[in-house]
Amino acid sequence: MAHLTSAVSSSIVSERVDLVDRAAHGEIDAFEHLVISGNDGILRIARAILGNDADARDAVQDAYVSAWRELPRLRDHGSFDAWLRRIIVNACRARLRDRRRIHEISLDASPIERADSGPSTSESVGDTDLLARAFDRLDAGKRAILVLHYLEHEPIASIAVAMGIAPGTVKWRMSEARAALARALVAEGEARR
Amino acid sequence: MISGIPIQPSDDRFERMLAERAGFDTSGDMVGTIVAMASRTPQRRRGWLWPLDAPQGRALPLGLAAALLALAILVTALALVGSDPFHRRSDLTVVPPPSPTSGLVAMPSGPANEPASVCGSTPPTDAPRVTTIDLPANAYAGMTFAACSVWILNNENGIGIHRVDVASNKVTDTVLNGPIDRPVGAIASNGDEVWAIQFDQAAQRQSMIHLDAVTGAPSTTFGIPRASLGSGFWIVGQAAWVGPDHRLAAPRDLDVIDLATGRVVTTLKDLAPSALWKDADAVWAIAPGATPEASQELVRIDPATFEVTRLPIPWQAADVTAATTVDDRGLFVAGSREIVQVSPEQPAVVRRIPLEEATAGALLASTGSELWAIPIRPVASPAQFETASRGLVQIDSVTGSVLQRIPYPAIGLASFGNAFRYAYGSLWFLAPDNDYGRTFGMHLVRVELPAAP
Prior knowledge:
Strand content of chain A: under 5%
Distance between the termini of chain A: 59 Å
Largest sheet of chain A: none
Distance between the termini of chain B: 65 Å
Oligomer: heterodimer
Largest interface: A-B, 83 and 73 residues
Structural class of chain B: mainly beta
Order of helices and strands of chain A: HHHHHHHHH
Strand content of chain B: 35-45%
Radius of gyration of chain B: 24 Å
Largest sheet of chain B: 5 strands, antiparallel
Shape of chain B: globular
Radius of gyration of chain A: 20 Å
Number of helices of chain A: 9
Structural class of chain A: mainly alpha
């Protein structure tokens, strides 16, 4: 049974590599199959990082167009999925930068919003919402590493490839990200008093 | 448990939040749009300068192949004389600059003042000579100079410092090599001594390790209160200045550590420099500023009392920020599309030198009398690299005019602290293999400058 499972897995992998190979040679149908099979997961990652469906969809579209454009230059077709995850992480970074820039340019409405919404205590905000707001205080890199670990359950080596960092650095960065999240929670808690 | 935290972010709770955030809607409706956009986007073939796609599945007629080869040679020649392939390739999209990536320690000292001949180096040259030196790994997080060697911190597997011999341009040794759960986070030198910061992930503690500059062997080791990753580590005289990477949020405390004893002499609060150096009178630093108008500030630290004076200077740091000094002309700092000349003593901006191609800032280096820049421009890329440049530019520190250019088009230059330096008669920086096909691939690039007449 183990042999059969292994054989099936190998077959699936080689089919996928074949699709990547064909897409790299300009076959749009092969690329469509790659998108169909991988898009749900990529969209989940983008939504988790960005917290916004519209931005996530834009980031995913940007990522796939980049992937199509650059695919002929990817030598190791077996690393396509990890390579694509790196692209989506970078696309999310770009989205967050755009969002931050727009926020800096527009009037800062947050003091008015706080005044209008009235007093808010930690009891009136769901824990999940509080955690999400704290998560939104993190930069793209920290969000990405936490998403890949906690949501996608990626192994360290895979996270390293997606983030473009060394495996040894992943643990360090993860611990930095967790510490930053804790500090963000404190800040969110104080903002609500 | 962190005091003041309203809820404990347990793994379970955090996973649930992320799952809720990620949602469960499928993305089937996006496929058609994605495929339609992709089909309108030309694929980028291998090789920077091959602009035409060969017809698929058919052999090229010999005459057509010859014509295409001639065209490729012509385009290559144009690139070598400085024309910019990036602007001519419409499929490259300029995106907003990457998040802050760099700090650069200024102050030539030690190896920067030693000519190459001290090291028995390569023959002198009448014109800038560019050499690319292969490196064992593909990602690097630090570079320093001592004992006629370039010491490069390997970041690919989190361990290892490679020594490149200046005389032979070859990697001769790798030190502090392993294990993987004890990464080396930063290296620094004052020209004579080399120190590294190593982090023990299992024990959650960090050490500062002295490396023999001749043999590379580790000797003295001190435990230190906080580690630095990439940026945030300087050796100034007989003290180590260890701070957080200025890109990280907090805590932002800078420890000054006596190299002889390992004792923390003082801790400077809320100071996370991106650059730090010493002149005859003081230690200077560039650190994030407190106001939107002055996103960076110049910090003066009295070396005797460690009194900190913050001097908001009205310039906007770019995403790749660097600083260097030239002779007695003061400090030059990279901003967005400009280099700002600052007089620390006044303190004031004395001149702004336009550098339009530096849309995301620039790497800066000084020979002491010459100011060199690598203007950085952001480009969209599926690889981790986002920093692009056409090459090196020498800028007249008196007039601000461009004196010469050395083409070296690249995407993905290293932009950590000290990523562009002058030592042993040469400019040094790290640039990737220009072939996108490799996910990684860094070279140490050496630009030997003619000796001053």
